[in-house]
Amino acid sequence: MGILGLRGGKQGVIEYSELSEEMAKLFDENGKLVYFGGSILNHIFKVSFLRRITNSLELLRSKYHIARKKVPFYSAGTKTAPKEPNGVKFELFYFDIFSLSTVSAAMEIQRSEEFAPVKNATGPDSPESARKLVSELHMKWLIKAGATFNNKPESEGCFCEISPLISYSGEGLDFISGRQITLPFSL
Q: What residue ranges in the chain does DSSP mark as E strands?
């Protein structure tokens, strides 16, 4: 996850691959991480700002990130998966334009309530793990509203989902107080 910070005195996102291990573990005098504000890639831009940027592409040319990658290749008909990086990829991310803005703001959120990444087909950060995180959050909302559960969510297919048309962040669920819920459950 990229970290919100300053690059050359301007707001930006420091890509995780560009953050040294020392920087990632740096604490301030109060014991708080110095680089703690992760970018979950939810951004709002003014259309006029985007038009200015896209009409001036030379501004972006100096913003490429160099990523060293393991690139599989074929030699004499045999596919080889290298153990060490053997290729260079030039990457440009849409948050690289932050430094071209004169005004910006960031919102701090609770990761467990607002962020369930989906980057992989299976395992960690997959649709399955994101669904589980959302289900756990919605069960917490129901418990806080006074509901109890008849079965355990560990059972396969025992998910809980509350439509954002009913509640966006756990509000307005008082009507569920005292109710016994059997999973799977959707509201």
A: 3-7, 10-14, 65-69, 73-75, 78-80, 87-91, 148-149, 160-161, 180-181, 185-186
In angstroms, what CA-CA distances link 100 with 11, 21, 37, 59, 71? Answer: 9, 28, 20, 8, 32
Instruction: Name residues of the chain where pLDDT drops below 50.
Output: none
Q: Which two tokens stand for residue 15?
A: 């890509």
Tell me the C-alpha distance between 97 and 117, whole Å.
22
Q: What angle do CA 65, 126, 39 make, to 5 degrees?
A: 40
The answer to whether 82 and 72 are in contact (CB under 8 A) is yes
pLDDT in tens, 99-128: 888 888 888 888 888 888 898 999 999 999
* 3-state SS, residue 44: coil
Both tokens of 187, joined, read 């509201």
